[in-house]
Amino acid sequence: VDASTGIMDYDLDEAEFARMVVSxxxxxxxxxxxxxxxxxxxxxxxSFSGFxxxxxxxxxxxxxxxxxxxxxxxxxIAGSQQAVGN
Length: 86
Description:
This is DeoR family transcriptional regulator. InterPro entries: DeoR-like_C, NagB/RpiA_transferase-like. This protein is of the alpha/beta class. It is about 25% helix and about 25% strand. It has a 4-stranded mixed sheet, with helices on one face. The longest helix is centred in the N-terminal third of the chain and has 13 residues, at about 10-25. It is globular, with a radius of gyration of 12 Å. The two termini are about 20 Å apart.
């Protein structure tokens, strides 16, 4: 999850599959743990405007939180009552 690029992957096949799933669904949810924040993969899956909600275990860094908010997506911290955005 990179603040300037969005959601990325290292595997081309996985990234293409994820793009297809996101494009076909009525609602897209990204689930990731905090270790993925600030890391770039080799292949872009989607920008922050390409999904509706990101669920994670810890609050992301400010630049990622800002990018999620600017895209109008919701941020949910699993295991808490904390949700930010739409």
